Amino acid sequence: MKTPDHLRNGFALALLLVAASAAVPARAQEIVYETGFENITKGSYAAAAVNIDGVEWILENVLIGTAESDRRNGDRSARFRFESPESVASMTMLGDFAEGVGEVRFLYARFGNDDDPPAFVVESSVDGGETWETEGGPFATAGVNTLTEATVRVLRSGDVRLRFRAVPPSGNGQRFNLDDITVTAFD
What is the pTM of this model? Predict the structure, then answer.
């Protein structure tokens, strides 16, 4: 049986359209922030404001880890310690990304051999930190022995700030590492 010309021509057109769309590169997302914590020093869990690669963050129950047990890409990573549900373990921006936020990419793993490390969430605020919306997670860190990549789609325009926050339940004093944070602009 012979294929009618109008079907053969339609199939050829469909192949041409697929080939043309494959040749158009995807639009790269504009990176508005990156850190690997390599130039940062904070050796205690005490709450403190820290400039991390040009952005001010408040680190509560978070230090910059360089120990052998810290999972890291390079020499340093952020180490979160969960003390209790009443004691916050978080890394919170003190300012906003004026370009909005498209995606947040990062690496995470449990610290050393902690057997009950906390999970964590990624949150955003569009009102200067008055209220927070969970954007991704909870990311479980128990049994995560190598740095694992995650991407959270935030997709918020205008002024946006971010927070990484440990969440219960977890044993007191349990820890996890966070490294290589990349934030893209809202597109």
Answer: 0.85
